[in-house]
From TrEMBL:
PROSITE patterns cross-referenced by the UniProt entry: NHL
Keyword vocabulary terms for this entry: Glycoprotein, Repeat, Signal
Protein name: 6-bladed beta-propeller
Family matches, as Gene3D superfamilies: TolB, C-terminal domain (2.120.10.30)
Residues in NHL repeats: 167-209
Annotated organism of origin: Paenibacillus baimaensis
Pfam families to which the protein is assigned, alphabetical: NHL (PF01436)
């Protein structure tokens, strides 16, 4: 691994250098679209992509450990690692092609899977269910965002039994246009649901039972998902940057911003010569390890994974 010390991105309080070449794949492997990235309690990094063996695992130094998950080929999208109430870590997936919510162990052993909600008023032969993201609340309830289908949020208990739904197409409070990402905010007095209401160019905040609380409409540019780290939230903006907000959701900095990338013909599938180590083109997933280092994956046909190493005074 070589550190590109000549390129520092971020701001005075959040400065990062690029670990250029981090996480190289074996010669016989290649990414599809890289959609999600997670880190476990050992700082192992899991990358979710649409190609063969859609889950790829590296250690924190970027050494390839293993790969698995052929059943997600082509449909890989939502990807979330959570320590459940039993103290063990599990992976949660949304498969947009098969219309599935899936829970596995961190080595890929299937725990259960859940298909389309039994809501004939919402779904039929012409109104598809296309889940894009998933998160888990402190009580074990699971929330799924139907970001490419009918724009609903669906809530299940820890065993996968249906509880309720809300949302639907629109721009009024409680309505959604492409609820692409979903996560639980634990920074306040009570847990909240953050939904990346992407085509409304905002984040919409709900109670855990689906009541609209407020909008966040500043410092965002097609928000895809969330990663909470301490008092901060990291947001991959599809329009070519990663945004960091403080505990009050005020802007700290944008990372790797390139306001020309998403305007290029053919975006997001740009020629490799366009990409620069310190600039993003189409961030889709982000996570942060125990040391504050940031991992970003991008929505592009051959995949892209970047590690940013946090600089400390």
């Amino acid at each position: 691994m070589r550190i590109l010390n000549t390129h520092v991105i971020g701001c005075a309080s959040h400065a990062y250098v690029i670990a250029e070449g981090w996480g190289k794949l074996p010669a016989n492997m290649a990414y599809g679209y890289t959609h999600g990235v997670c880190v476990d309690s050992q700082d192992n990094v899991y990358v979710h992509h649409t190609g063969k063996d859609p889950v790829i695992v590296f250690d924190r130094d970027g050494r390839f450990l293993t790969s698995w998950g052929k059943e997600f080929e082509g449909g890989a999208h939502g990807f979330y690692l959570h320590q459940d109430q039993d103290g063990k870590e599990y992976l949660y997936f949304t498969d947009r092609l098969r219309g599935l919510l899936v829970k596995t162990t961190t080595d890929g052993t299937l725990i259960w899977e859940q298909g389309q909600p039994d809501r004939p008023d919402v779904y039929d032969a012409s109104r598809r269910y296309v889940p894009t993201d998933v998160c888990v609340a402190p009580n074990g309830d699971i929330y799924v965002a139907d970001g490419y289908g009918q724009y609903y949020i669906h809530q299940y208990n820890a065993e996968g039994s249906y509880i309720r739904s809300w949302g639907g197409r629109g721009s009024d409070p409680g309505q959604l246009l492409e609820p692409h990402g979903i996560s639980v905010n634990l920074r306040g007095n009570e847990p909240e649901l953050y939904v990346a209401d992407r085509r409304n160019h905002r984040i919409q905040v709900f109670t855990l039972d689906g009541q609209h609380k407020r909008f966040m409409e500043h410092n965002l540019d097609l928000p895809c998902s969330f990663y909470f780290f301490g008092d901060e939230v990291y947001i991959p903006d599809l329009d070519s940057r990663v945004t960091i907000l403080d505990k009050n959701d005020r802007l700290i900095t944008h990372l790797g911003e390139d306001q020309q990338a998403y305007k290029q013909q053919g975006w997001p599938n740009l020629p490799k010569a366009y990409f620069r180590p310190d600039k993003f083109s189409s961030p889709h997933g982000v996570c942060v390890d125990s040391r504050g280092d940031v991992y970003v994956v991008e929505w592009t046909a051959e995949g892209r994974l970047t590690k940013l190493i946090r600089q400390r005074e």
